[in-house]
Structure formats: C-alpha cells, structure tokens
Amino acid sequence: MNLFKQGININYSPLKIYQVFLVFLVVALFIRFPFFFRDYIDRDESTFILMGQSWAEGHLPYTTLWDLKPPLAFLFFAAVITIFGKSFIAIRLAGTIAIAVTSLYLFKIGDRLAGRKAGFWCGMLYIFLSSLFGNVQGVMTEHLSMLFLVPAFWFLIKATNKRHILWAGILFGAAAMTKLNLAYPILFMGLGLMYFEYRAKGIYASLENGSLYGAGVSIPVILTAIPYYLDNLLLVWWESVILAPLHYDTPDPANNIDAFADLLPFIGIAALLIFLNSKKRCFPRLCRNYTYILLALAGTMVSFIQSGEVNSHYLIQLYPFLILPLVVIVSHMKWSWKLAYTPFAALLLMLIQFEPLKEYCFLGDRVLQGKSLYNGEGIEVPEYIRTHIGDVQSAFFLENHIGYWLINEHPPTKSVTHPSNLDREQLYPYYDNPRKNSVEELRYICSEVNPQIIVTERGKIPFMKDNSPDNIYFKDILAKKYRFVKRIGEAEIYRRKY
Questions:
Q1: Which of 396, 421, 309, 319 is nearest to 69 (CA)?
Q2: What is the pLDDT averaged over residues 325-329?
Q3: Number of domains making up the chain
Q4: How many Å apart are CA 51 and CA 67, to the nearest integer?
Q5: Burial bucket for residue 226 (CB in 10 Å: 0-12, 13-18, 19+)
Q6: Which helix (H) or strand (E) holds 450?
Q7: Same domain for 287 and 411?
Q8: 311/397 same-domain check
Q9: Are strands 453-457 and 395-397 parallel, antiparallel or unpaired?
C-alpha cells in the first residue's frame, strides 16, 4: 500500500543511451506488435509496399508503377523486401525500429533542453502518439520522414561548427525526399538559422552558413535524381517528384479553409504553450532552439493548409514539435500539490493501451481457434484466389490492393497503383498516361487489359459516388462481363465470364 501512496521515483541520470533506446524499442514493439499481422492498416502503406517491391525487382519508382511520394519513401520498403522477402513482420518491425530511433533523438533533444527526465518523456510521448491512434500502426511516410527530420533538428540545435550545419541540411534533405511537404518547415528553419547567424556574426556568416545548409539539403535531392539521369529518365524524376506534387489537389480555397479548421485544436495547443512559456520563461526570449521549434510547427501547419487536407497520420509531423515545448514547460512548473501517481499512471497506461490490448486478445482468440495470426480481407481474398481459382493472368484490385503483392501480380496501369489515384485526373499528364480521364482509364483496364479477376467493395468503386459516370460504367461492366464469385467481409471477388 505504501507504494501506491508514495508512487515510484525513477532516477533517470544513470540511464545510458543504449538503455534508453532499448526501453523505447520494447515499448514501441509492445504497442505495435499485434498489428504486424494485419492485412493492411492504411491504403498508403499497401501502395508503398507495391512500389518497394517494384524497385526491388529492378524498376525505378515511377517507371512501371506510380505514386505521389518522393523516392526515399519507397527505398525503405525496397530495402526491407530485398533483404527479407515478402514479409509483413519485417516491414513493420523495421518501422518500429525507425520509431524507436526517432524517439531516441527526441530524448537527446529534450535532455539538452531540460534534462534527462524531460528527454525520456519526449521520446515516450512520441512513441504513444505515433503508434496508438487512427491508422498509424502501419509504416507511413510520416514515420520514415521523422527518422531523418528529428536527427536533423538535433544537429541544428547543437550546431557548433559547419559540419553540424551541413549534416542538418543533408538529413533535412533526406526528410524532404521522403515527405515533400516538409520543404516548408525546412525552409522556415533555414531562414531562422540565417537570421540568428546574422545577429551573432553578421551578413557574411549568415550567407555562408545559409548556403552550407542549402547545399546539404540539395545533396539527397540530387542523389535521388542521379539513377534517373543515368538511365536517361531525368524527365520522369522531374515530373513525378517535383511537378506532380504541385498539382496533387485542384486549387479550392474551401479545402484550405477546411484544413485550417482541422488544425485549430493544434494551433490552440501551440498558442497555449507559447503563452505558458511567456509566463514561465522556460525558454529565454528569442532563444534559438525555441524559435526553431516554432518555425518547424508553423512551416508544417502551413504545408497542411496549402495542401488542403489534414489526415490523421499527417499529424505525426507535428508531434515532435508540440511534445518538446510541452515537456520542457511542464518540467519547469512547480506543483502546489502532490499526486501519488503510481495508480494514476497505471490506469492511464491501461487506457491508452486499450487498442493494442484489444488486438492482442483478438490474436489470442485466433490462436485458440487454430487460425493464422495473419488476418483481414487483404490476406483472405488472395488466399481464396490462390486456393479456388489458382494462378491468375491479371487482376484489378479496387480495394485491398495489397492483394497484388500476395498473388504476385501488378496493378493493370500506373494510375491504379494507389486505387484512389484513378480519380486524380490532374496527375495523369505527370506519368504520361495517354488516357485523359478516369472513365477512359476504366474503359482501357476493363476492355483492353481485360482482367481475369476484379476485387472491389459492394460491387462498385468504393471511393467514388454511386451515381458517378465511373461507377455507372463499372457496374455495367461487372454485370455484363463478370460473375460474382465470393464475398469476404466487405470485399467482393468477380471473375471474368469469357
């Protein structure tokens, strides 16, 4: 009982770096392990796996399959697949290690700003926020980009020589070549660096270090272009990596307003932290590190508003720069009351671990029933196809498209590597699609490619309106040329009649 009254006092000082990393890795693994066996957690992750598989087979990104992400996003998946083969466990374990490494650098930053305890909880909070909610149990480009961006930020705040600035730039460039919208916070922080160098050493030092920073950022960008240049495909790189993202969304001020509205809670949190810091002076006025944090937050939010969309996994890019000031400010506060926090912490941990614990129970139930741990329509549909249909000559997955990977097939055209890209007609010119719109693309796939198997959801294209021209055409094709074979969950399998 005494333990519950007094709580547990942890001595963070003796913790060595490798011990902190192991703690972070164990916690991240505990949270994420039960999701290693899911078919797919987010459509994007399945697309990255397909792009990585294509690269592992020797095809540069954007040449045979296409998606709107920079090349380093796919290199991670290509490397894991090349080494370990087709393994969900290997991909998601590598993603878990990436999160633990990112948390370790947040620990180092927090330790530098406010001590070891603050650093420890910076890392731990990042693990929770990047693993527990929404669709972040998969390996997303946000996780991979933070693997570069957070260490880059570490070099930026400890920059005592030109080598640190160069390394910060290189790692920031790698982050941008994993998630392109990070160009905004990288630019903002670069301008902040130049401002502080100007204040401290004058215009020459500002230009010199700003140029060094910019050169570092440019190195990964140039390196990703070199393989395309050597293969006479530099235009493919330029159109897919640089031009296409600028046309991802049709300009619509309403979308920008919606994105701003979605960000209001996080803007409010940032404003509260700024207010508390002004009262508590946890960061000195015009402190470099504090300013860099605010610039990173501002740049990331501007990128979301400009894109007109804020998906839940996008927020992973915000978390490090909200966690750092939050933990630093809390660590400077003097509490007028004491909380015997052991039972409180235990209850809180149980609540935030509800989703992983629920998944562990689900897996345990499958084991007791003698079923495979691997689960989900994206696993069961390919298994049914292999068992009851055999080898297929061609397939078209409008949902559960991880199925291509599991039956050793490729999407019928570049535009459906990610199924929802079918509807992004504004991107067609940037991968030289000869069809002009989604109906033409569907007609080509269903009449020219003529897939033997179509997998969709409820007999329609799941991400388009029922009465859209695309769905009207698609339903007509299914009725005339295909017969319904099997429903597995929400997925429906159709087989060509002739």
A1: 421
A2: 91
A3: 2
A4: 8
A5: exposed
A6: none
A7: no
A8: no
A9: parallel
